[in-house]
Amino acid sequence: MYKIRKGEKEDLPRVLELIKELALYEKAPEQVSNTIEMMEVDGFGPNPIYGFFVAVKEATQEIIGISIYYYRYSTWKGKRLYLEDIVVTESERGFGAGKLLFDRTMMKCLEDKCSGMMWQVLDWNEPAINFYKKYGADLDGEWINCNLQADEIQALLS
C-alpha cells in the first residue's frame, strides 16, 4: 500500500505542505517560516543538515507522509539521530504509513551507527504518545525545552 523512500529535492513542495498540515494540527500554523528555498539549501546544499524519508501511496504515487531527521551530539551518549517530525496526512492515518516511516528512521539510526534516536511529542497528542508507547519508548517528562529566535538573539547581543 505504501512505499518508503529517501526524500528528493523535487519532493520539497509536498514536504512543506505536510509541515504546514502538522503546524495546523499542533495549533501553530503561524509559526511556519520555513521555505522551499531554505529547505533546498539546508538539505541539498554543500553541507546538508537534515535528511528525510517519504511515504508514497502506491496506488496514486502521492506523498502522504514524511520523516525528517538530523544528527545531534550528546556529551553522554555520542552521536544520536534526532527525529524532528513524522507526519502522515490526516486521511491516511491509521493505515500503517507512520509505522513504516518510523521503522525506516530507526533503521537509518542503526545504519549510521548512532547510539540511539530521540524526538519530542506534545503532551496533549494522545495518538502520537500511544503510537510511541507501542515501541516501548521512554517518554521523559523531566526536561524543559528552551529556545531563542534569531531576532531575539540579535537583540540580546546588541
Automatic annotation (TrEMBL):
Organism: Belliella calami
Keywords: Acyltransferase, Transferase
SUPFAM superfamilies noted in UniProt: Acyl-CoA N-acyltransferases (Nat)
Keyword NAD tagged: no
Xref: CDD domains: NAT_SF
Domain of life: Bacteria
InterPro entries named among the record's database cross-references: Acyl_CoA_acyltransferase (IPR016181), Diverse_Substrate_AcTransf (IPR051016), GNAT_dom (IPR000182)
Domain N-acetyltransferase: 2-158
Lineage, opening ranks: Bacteria, Pseudomonadati, Bacteroidota, Cytophagia, Cytophagales
Protein name as catalogued: GNAT family N-acetyltransferase
